[in-house]
Write a structure and sequence with these properties.
The complex is a heterodimer of chains A (277) and B (166). Chain A is α+β, with helices and mostly antiparallel strands and 277 residues long. Chain A is 34% helix and 29% strand. Chain A has two domains: 2-54; 103-276, Thrombin, subunit H, CATH 2.40.10.340. Chain A is globular, with a radius of gyration of 23 Å. Helix content of chain B is 73%, strand content 0%.
Chain lengths: 277, 166
């Protein structure tokens, strides 16, 4: 016993180092496991209020650009609205309105901390449980899809954006409706990759990529980006497509959180199915 | 006593500078200045080892806290804190053994070698843990090299500025 204590006292520097090092490695591993990130949550009061202050200052420098983005979004939405009004008018007796996607609604919010340099990036929103934001809600910005809510505290929400290697999203080519999964490869914040598109899809440069319908999180048809380059893997017969993201992730500021009112119900059903098996 | 207060102020200053400004810089889409390690480089030589580890850990974990990265910065600062005596011995030789280093009076080459060893070790650990796998070794090396060189240049510039002030 005496010898053990002597050994520890003699090597106390090494042990201090080892203890702290193992602690930080554990924290790192924890940060990589979903929803278990409780020890040091990014979305807590201290960092949250700090980033709120910081973004309220940053906002002044971005006002003009932000205005332009919102302006062009307004233009697009107005066009869509007129188009829809026309369709509703001409289809008054058909069931058009009842078919519309009414179970999705949006909550506006602000991105107060933005990361895009790392392989596993996260964003922070200034809305949380208080504003009825829950885990697994989709997040979009005026220019297209941003990511998925991954953790919430009372006042803040942590978002896992497209620029995170852990996220994979159901996406399709708008023209042909072939779908695959969108996954970031971790290099440039301007590009992502669309995998598992079958040979028959015949993609063209410049084709629009939108969210697919096979997702509970996003409604079908939200813009993701455009095809920049594509390459057919002869062995598997699947395309690997390089997608230019329509969102500029290096300058995000406003976002909308999408609330799918059927999410809970659908999840319950899936869970039940799993239990039955 | 005054000297330790200077170090605490310096640490807090660089942490805040890192969080507020430097973390948002992303030069040529590859290099970020991580100047928060400056106070670790400049802490006194005869400091208690355990206290030194603890300070480095706290500096690292506070950056992690605001970056939402778990513990990668803490691990990196700990590694350079652990290896600092070796780097000092390699760079300054006899002056370190006798504890007579006057940092601002040492030659440019010695300072450069010390700073590069610290920065490159820090960056290697940081980017390896950040990638969280060894599949992208080339990318890790690339990031380490570019960002490391950029950091060494910045740190050498700051050394010179500090020396001029004296």
């Amino acid at each position: 016993m005496q010898q053990i204590i002597n050994f520890i006292v003699k090597n106390k520097n090494g042990f201090t180092f080892l203890f702290l090092f193992v602690l930080s490695i554990i924290l790192t591993i924890n940060a990589h496991s979903y929803q278990k990130n409780k020890y040091i949550n990014f979305a807590n009061g201290v960092t949250g209020s700090f980033f709120t202050l910081k973004s309220s200052i940053d906002d002044y420098f971005e006002l003009k650009k932000e205005n332009d983005i919102l302006w062009s979004e307004n233009e697009r939405i107005r066009n869509e609205l007129m188009h829809l009004k026309k369709r509703v008018d001409s289809n008054k007796k058909t069931q058009f309105t009842s078919q519309a996607n009414t179970h999705f609604n949006v909550i506006k919010s602000k991105i107060i901390s933005n990361n895009y340099r790392k392989n596993y990036n996260y964003l922070l929103l200034n809305k949380g449980l208080k504003d009825s934001i829950k885990v697994d809600m989709g997040v979009i910005s005026p220019n297209g899809i941003v990511g998925v809510v991954e953790g919430v505290s009372n006042n803040y929400a942590r978002v896992i954006p497209l620029l995170n290697k852990d996220l994979s999203i159901n996406a399709e080519i708008k023209k042909t409706n072939h779908f695959g999964s969108l996954q970031w490869q971790g290099n440039s914040p301007y590009y992502s990759s669309l995998l598992d598109i079958p040979r028959s899809a015949n993609p063209q440069k410049g084709d629009t990529i939108v969210t697919g319908g096979n997702s509970l999180i996003f409604p079908k048809g939200i813009s993701i980006g455009y095809i920049e380059k594509f390459q057919l893997n002869q062995n598997t017969g699947y395309y690997k497509i390089k997608v230019k993201l329509s969102n500029d992730f290096t300058s995000l500021s406003k976002a909308y959180v999408i609330n799918n009112e059927h999410l809970k119900e659908a999840k319950k059903l899936l869970k039940k199915q799993k239990n039955d098996q | 006593m005054i000297s330790s207060r200077v170090h605490i102020v310096r640490i807090i200053f660089w942490i805040f500078l890192q969080i507020i400004i430097l973390n948002n810089i992303f030069l040529f889409d590859i290099a970020t200045p991580y100047l928060y390690i400056l106070p670790i480089i400049l802490l006194p030589l005869n400091i208690n080892r355990q206290l030194f580890f603890l300070i480095s850990f706290i500096i690292g974990i506070s950056i992690d806290f605001f970056e939402g990265t778990g513990g990668i910065f803490a691990a990196s600062t700990l590694v350079i804190a652990y290896l600092r005596p070796f780097f000092l011995r390699i760079s300054f030789g006899l002056a370190y053994e006798q504890m007579t280093i006057k940092f601002h009076e040492e030659s440019f080459l010695q300072k450069l070698s010390y700073a590069s060893l610290m920065v490159l070790t820090h960056h290697t650990t940081l980017y390896t843990l950040e990638a969280f796998s060894l599949n992208n070794l080339i990318m890790i090396l690339e990031k380490t090299l570019y960002s490391g060189i950029f950091n060494v240049i910045l740190i050498m510039l700051i050394f010179n500025l500090l020396a001029k002030n004296k």
